[in-house]
Amino acid sequence: MDQQTKQALKHDQFVDTTNHGLEWASENRRSVIVTSAIVLAAILVVVGGALLYNSRANQASVAFGAAMQAYQTPLAAPGQAVPPGVKTYASVTERAKAANDLFMGVADKYGMTPDGKVARYFGGLTYMEQGNNASAESTLKKVADGWNGDLAALANLSLAQLYRQTGRDSQAIDLYNQLTAKPTSTVPSGLAQLQLAELYETEGKPDLAKKIYAQLKDKDAKGAAGALAAQKLNPTPAGPGGQ
Fold first, then answer.
1. Which of 62, 107, 141, 170 has the most CB atoms lying inside 10 A of its own CB?
2. Which residues face 89 on adjacent strands?
3. Which of 125, 181, 177 is nearest to 151 (CA)?
């Protein structure tokens, strides 16, 4: 078969295929139009949603930065000399109140963004610093129930601290054990165990605390948690004069 014949056959096949496609499209014109419209609408929704999300994420980032700036504002006692133009707060409570308003504003407005979720966590912390324990607990529980395991672990660690402050040691112990069983990059098991041992010490249960320290010292011999546990088991003697 010569090259010219091959080209003719290919051309005929192309024409037949094209004609068949045009006939099908003509017969199913309404279906094609509807389907194309649905696909186009879906694409526009996805693209529009992505653009909207990115815009909100950027706005959340700016708002979260402002909240963190307030949270990190230095404290100054009444009458203390402060450089011109430097903002300060008179107390931790006053600063926490100001920062909390900003954090919760970010969390409520941009709750679906990463910065919005972190802002809710800091909202819980600043509620604690204000002494607003009920709001702190409910806010931290929302974060602890979220899908972000690292952030949830931090929230549970803070919840355990809140439980200790409010005389609910048994609940704190449960959380420390949960965090030990399921460590994360933000709350390693060693950190949860150290906190649990410290709780036992404050409860007047040194034997339980020493047992945790000993296990941690052997398990994490080269890590920071193991080193702290070893120091707890063998505290450095005070120097002359108690120094």
1. 107
2. 75
3. 125
> Mind listing the pLDDT tens digit for each residue in 96-141?
999 999 999 999 999 989 999 999 999 999 999 999 999 999 999 9
Q: DSSP of 118-179, one letter per residue?
A: HHHHHHHHHHHHHT-HHHHHHHHHHHHTSS-HHHHHHHHHHHHHHHHHTT-HHHHHHHHHHH
pTM over the 0.85 mark: no
**Tokens for 153?**
């672990």
Residue 33 amino acid letter:
I
CB atoms within 10 A of CB 56: 16
Domain locations in the chain?
59-145
Rounded to a whole number, what is the largest CA-CA distance in the chain? 109
Report which secondary-structure segment, H or E, holds 21: helix 3-27
pLDDT tens-digit series, residues 156-186:
999 999 999 999 999 999 999 999 999 999 9
The tokens describing 159, both together, are 């919840």
Asked if 115 and 65 count as a contact pair (C-beta separation under 8 A), the reply is no
- By CB atoms closer than 10 A (0-12, 13-18, 19+), residue 201 is middle
